[in-house]
Amino acid sequence: MTYSLSGNRMLFNISRTEILDISVKDVIVVEGFPGIKYVWTDHDRDFVENNPDDDIFLQVERVSTDQFKAKGILLK
To answer: pTM for the whole thing?
Structure first.
């Protein structure tokens, strides 16, 4: 049996240890997906600091056949 999922967004898990020293205006890129760049914001910093037990994800959206764009940070 095949199950089909619809949508144009993906989540990339970010380990807290990988961004331990991240600062506002630092850039996150995703190797293997050229053009994806996300600039860390004050809001992201506060969001992550106030939710220390949550997993961090970078949300990426497909905007065309071969182009992707970082949409934001999600916590779960």
So the answer is: 0.88
